[in-house]
Design brief:
With 175 residues, this protein is an alpha+beta fold. The chain is built from 7 helices and 8 strands; from the N terminus they run βαβαβαβββαββααα. It has a single domain, classed as Peptide methionine sulphoxide reductase MsrA (Peptide Methionine Sulfoxide Reductase, Chain A), CATH 3.30.1060. The radius of gyration is 15 Å and the shape is globular. InterPro entries: Met_Sox_Rdtase_MsrA_dom, Met_Sox_Rdtase_MsrA_sf.
Length: 175
């Protein structure tokens, strides 16, 4: 098993698409990239910790390779938005791929370059590729929010503009 860590705005919307893929052992919502150990949701939202909301995925690369995780990640975000994601604004909602080794870095950099050069977006790709830092699991009520609160999750995914953006740019590629 290996780990992959992605920040893509609100972590509620990042869990379900990964959770539904084969070879995924777990998808945990949490915080990473900052300087405060064991931050709370309120601390991260205060924009004083340096942390981003993120998901950490434990996966079997022989079933679902890292390359495919990165490709799925792009379809979940607006990769050109450096100020947050959709309705959620601020540093804690910005995007990043946190790489766990040089192989992941090479894959992420090559994928980002391909997407940037594809012409799919008319602005540059703003997603940072950073070394993985300690990952702190978010509070229990944030974990698998789409299962615990499906009606609110669906309203949020649609109301934030995320679902419309995904449809406009990717169609039904991963549905």
């Amino acid at each position: 098993m290996e780990k992959a860590t992605f920040a893509g705005g609100c972590f509620w919307c990042m869990v379900k698409p990964f959770d539904e893929q084969p070879g995924i052992e777990s998808v945990i919502s949490g915080y990473t990239g900052g300087h405060v150990p064991n931050p709370t949701y309120e601390q991260v939202c205060s924009e004083t910790t340096g942390h981003l909301e993120a998901v950490q995925i434990t996966f079997d690369p022989s079933i679902y390779p890292y390359e495919e995780l990165v490709e799925l990640y792009w379809t979940l975000i607006d990769p050109t938005d450096a100020g947050g994601q959709f309705y959620d604004r601020g540093e804690s909602y910005t995007t990043a791929i946190f790489v766990h080794d040089e192989q992941q870095r090479a894959i992420a950099e090559a994928s980002k370059k391909r997407l940037d050069e594809s012409g799919k977006f008319n602005r540059p790709i703003a997603v940072k590729i950073l070394d993985a830092k300690p990952f702190y699991e978010a509070e229990a009520y944030h974990q698998h929010y789409y299962k615990k609160n499906p009606a609110h999750y669906n309203r949020y995914a649609v109301g934030s503009g995320r679902e419309a953006f995904k449809q406009q740019h990717w169609g039904n590629k991963y549905e």
